[in-house]
Amino acid sequence: METKKMVLLDIDYITRGEKAVVRLFGREKNEKEGKSVIVLDKGFKPYIYVVPHDLDKCQEQIIEELNIPQVEKVKMKDLGQEKDFIKVTLNHPQDVPKLRDKIRDLSEVKDIREHDIPFYRRYLIDKRLFPMAEVEVQGNVINPHEMDIQDVPANTSTCVMELEGEIFPVSSEFPDLNILSLDIEVYNPKGMPNSETDPIIMISLSSNQGLQKVLSTAESPLNFVETLDDEAAMLKRFVDIVEEENPDLLIGYNSDNFDFPYIRDRASLLDVPLKLGTDGSSLKFMKRGFANAALVKGRVHVDIYLIMRRYLHLDRYTLERVYLELFGKEKHDIPGDEIHEYWTAGGKKLERLFRYSLDDAVTVTEIGEKMLPLTQELTRIVGQPFFDVARMTTGQMVEWYLIRKAYEQGEVVPNKPSSSQYSNRRGKRATGGYVKDPVKGLHENIVYFDFRSLYPSIIISKNVSPDTLVNECESGKCHVSPERGYMFLKEPTGFVPSIIGNILNERVRLKTMMKESEDEKEKKILNVQQEALKRLANSMYGVYGYSRFRWYRLECADAITAWGRAYIKKTMAQAEEFGFKPVYADTDGFYAVYQD
Q1: Per residue in 225-253, is it b (16+ CB within 10 Å) or e — as a string?
Q2: Is the pLDDT of residue 303 over 80?
Q3: How far apart are CA 558 and CA 395, in angstroms?
Q4: Which end of the chain is more exposed for a tag (fewer CB within 10 A), N or C?
């Protein structure tokens, strides 16, 4: 048996025989050129919770009518109230969709809960594991070919282990990750390229380990160009370089929608296997939201374009525009409809195309190094895979963070809304924050008043949570919101307020450490961490009114904004008493002119 420490990069599960086997993908700690690791865990099973009419009768009915032996009575909290549930453990994740309706239809079953949490996410939550953090595992190293799942190359650098005992987190330090970015150029004489007819003419690669290379079928005196015999050889060489570089992160710009789908289509036409995963698996595509996402097992593929759409507010999101915004530098561009002309012209024009293509890949690496740490830290907080978090909305991140916290506090997670519930919620909106139209004119002696974390602070101070919302309350025992008079118990602390309170306290601690630190690298890391917590905390108000949110309560969202409007109006009135005339206000702050 061996013990290994590794950075947890990704997770999935496969089926061996009739059992589900969880696969944890990682890299050996502090070995940037060391082995990728796949840990196999066959000891975890899926489960759901049943809300019974009668506890004993329900348990007996599930066992007898559905022949499910692993059934136990448990006490869990449901929106703060302790209740009796029946925990039903199944043999395989695919049994959940097969049996959930049959269980729900039993006469003694009132409802079922937590039937819609994906198996690999359930594993991370229950095992208290966080992707992008270090874990320690004990197990037996096996021959990769014993996996019986993928054709793992004989020269693979991947170490495969079967877990014996537990796996647990051991460190929260920022891991050093190997990043490889890619960009392709396509011959497109008819404008928009067609993967059935238009070949890939260049594949540019850049890494944070020093690699800068362009693969092409054209010859060039430039030392970063590697010439291959044909397009098929170029694609094969691309696969070889990915294995040689062994990156943890594989990044591109619009690579979900263009680069990887185009590479897949051309490789299929040319019969080139795209075995890019650390398990020897091929490039795959998974549905994420309304789009497909390119998936490489054991290497986290991140489309930087999606990250930029989330973090930056720009008029357009071309690579050139984003680079200018982040680095203040102009990036040379070749119009897409002229690429085929540069390719055909040869000579200096072709050299310019080579430089442009490499520059695209290098630029993506630079942007990734600057912007990915925030998503990396959100991954370590939310506790779901980097691949997923990079494609989540902020509301989805909040929900998965709360699901993890619910497990830690013994809370059963509310179900997603049914179709009818969702239809009923759609179109309903909480009243927004207070806005004062700007006073026209040129103003001097302007000061800005800002509430720090206004909405999160209201949630905490007024204990705004679905489990504290009541219809009746004894005098003095509730916070009553302005305008509509929603009532929230002062005690005990609600589920969501308790979590936001911990987030804000942790953020204050990190900001204090930033001020005290004299180490620039440590300051940078601490800043990323506090920014991630800020984004999470500031998003929690909005999700109360999000129609698909598990903890949806429009009354909570309405009460929060009502208190916000009241506070800002009261503060503006007090400011006027001290000679400050408000000239503009928006949600959580206002501008005022000081008058002697």
Answers
A1: beebeebbebbbbbbebbbebbbbbbbbb
A2: yes
A3: 17
A4: C
Give, in order, the Cα–Cα distances in Å from 36 to each of 6, 20, 27, 233.
9, 22, 4, 26
Identify the CATH number of the domain defined by range 2-44+127-171: 2.40.50.730
Amino acid at 201: I
Architecture label for domain 426-594: Alpha-Beta Complex (3.90)
Q: Where are the alpha helices (DSSP H) in 80-156?
A: 95-104, 119-126
131 preceded by a cis bond (ω within 30 of 0): no
Question: What is the DSSP code (8-state) at residue 337?
Answer: G
Question: What is the Cα–Cα distance from 340 to 188, expressed in whole angstroms?
Answer: 6
Provide CATH 3.90.1600.10 ranges for the chain.
426-594
Closest-CA residue to 333 (of 359, 306, 364)? 359
Q: Is the distance from CB of 456 to CB of 556 less than 8 angstroms?
A: no
Cα–Cα dist 528/371, whole Å: 10
pLDDT(147) > 60: no
Tell me the pLDDT tens digit for each residue of 552-575.
999 999 999 999 999 999 999 999
Q: Which residues pair with 592 in a beta bridge?
A: 447, 582
Whether this prediction's pTM lies above 0.85 is answered by yes
The closest of 10, 3, 6 to 25, measured between CA atoms, is 10
